[in-house]
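@here heads up, posting the sequence + SMILES for the flavin mononucleotide run so it's all in one place. Ping me if the SMILES looks off, I pulled it from an old spreadsheet.
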Amino acid sequence: MERKSITLDKIQKNTATMFQNWMLLTAGENAPGKFNAMTIGWGFLGFAWGKPIAVTLVRHHRYTFEFMERAEDFTICSFPPQYRDALNLLGTKSGRDGDKVAASGLTPVASKIVRAPAYAEADLVLECKKAHFYDMREQDVAAKWVLDVYPGRDFHKMYFGEIVHVEEA
Ligand SMILES: Cc1cc2nc3c(=O)[nH]c(=O)nc-3n(C[C@H](O)[C@H](O)[C@H](O)COP(=O)(O)O)c2cc1C
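bot reply: prediction finished. Complex C-alpha cells:
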C-alpha cells in the first residue's frame, strides 16, 4: 500500500477509536524469527515531554513482551478492514508456537527510522522509540479496577514511545 510520510497532527484516521479497531504492535529486528507482533486494542496517542507519544500496554506473559524489553523501539500499525482475520490470528496465537506473522499473510517491510519492521499492507505506521516504561503496581491501581480488570493480578507494563515517523495511506 502506498503511504505518505506525515506529521502526527495530519493523521486522517480517528485517533480516539483506532486502538479499539485493533492495531498491531511489533518489536525486534526486521529479519525472520528476530521480531514478534501481537494485536493490541488498548493504547493512546498524544503529547508529553514536548514530543509526540504513543502508549501501549503489554502483559508480561506475551511473547512480544520479551521483544519489547530487549528492543529500543517498536512500531504500531493499523490495517484496512480486509486484514481483520490476520489481526485476529496475531491476537490469539503466540509467536512462541510458530511463525504466526508468516501465517497471517502480512508482509514485513523495513521501517524508515526504527529497527522494528512495518508491513506493506498497513494503512498507518507509527514508528516509536522507547522513552518511558513502567510496570503497573497493584498499590497504584484503584481497588475497583483491580477487581474488574486484573483479578489475576496480571498487570500490564506501559511503554511510552516517542513517535519518530508517521506514514499514512
Ligand atoms: C482485539 C485484541 C486486542 C488485544 N489487545 C492487547 C493489549 O492491548 N495488550 C496485551 O497485552 N494483549 C492484547 N491482546 C492479546 C494478545 O494480542 C495475544 O495474547 C497474542 O496472542 C500475544 O501474542 P504473543 O504471545 O506472540 O506476543 C489483544 C488481543 C486481541 C484479539
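MO: The radius of gyration is 15 Å.
MO: One more: The pocket of flavin mononucleotide is lined by residues 22, 36, 38-42, 57-59, 62-64, 91-96 (CB under 6 Å).
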